[in-house]
Amino acid sequence: MGATPIVFSQESHVSGKQSKTSRASVRAGAGAASGAVSVLGEVKYVIPLNGGKNAYVRNITTGRTPNLRTNSDAFVEEIRTLAAAGHGAKIKAELEVLASEAPGHGWDDTLKRLVEAEALS
């Protein structure tokens, strides 16, 4: 018998498993109808982690919520995908709120990077 080829996914993940804490934080505000994280009925696309160094990005177009470093190209691409689907203004507003509520967490730099990369338009 010939060897069965092993097929690897093209996606890059830090870990193959999602921790109980990450699942719980994503599920905490999940709406039953939309499946999106929400706070008082508003969908949240960016869920901050680790003092602004990482964030879950709720991609409602793919149904995935990857944990990404906010200074990574993958983060910019995930935001660009959402902006292309018409969510750029909402994400920009979320990041502006994060920058004002947690000024030491680097959200203003993150927002600046996204604007310079034209990921929000």
Give a brief rundown of this model:
This protein has helices at 20-27, 73-101, 107-116, and strands at residues 38-39, 42-43, 46-49, 54-57, 67-69. By secondary structure, it is of the alpha+beta class. The chain has one domain.
Features:
121 residues, alpha+beta, two-stranded antiparallel ribbon, 3 helices
Word description of this protein:
With 121 residues, the protein is an alpha+beta fold. It has one domain (20-116). Helix content is 39%, strand content 12%. It contains 3 helices and 5 strands. The strands form 2 sheets. Strands 3-4-5 form a 3-stranded antiparallel β-sheet. Strands 1-2 form a two-stranded antiparallel sheet. 22% of the residues are buried.
Sheet having the most strands: 3 strands, antiparallel
Number of structurally distinct domains: 1
Total strand count, please? 5
The chain-level mean pLDDT equals 81
The strand line-up of the biggest sheet is 3-4-5
**Helix and strand string, N-terminal first?**
HEEEEEHH
As an assembly, this protein is: single chain
Which radius of gyration do the C-alpha atoms yield? Answer: 16 Å
Shape, per Cα inertia axes: globular
Helical residues, percent: 25-40%
SSE layout and pairing:
Layout: H1 20-27, E1 38-39, E2 42-43, E3 46-49, E4 54-57, E5 67-69, H2 73-101, H3 107-116
Antiparallel strand pairs: 1-2, 3-4, 4-5
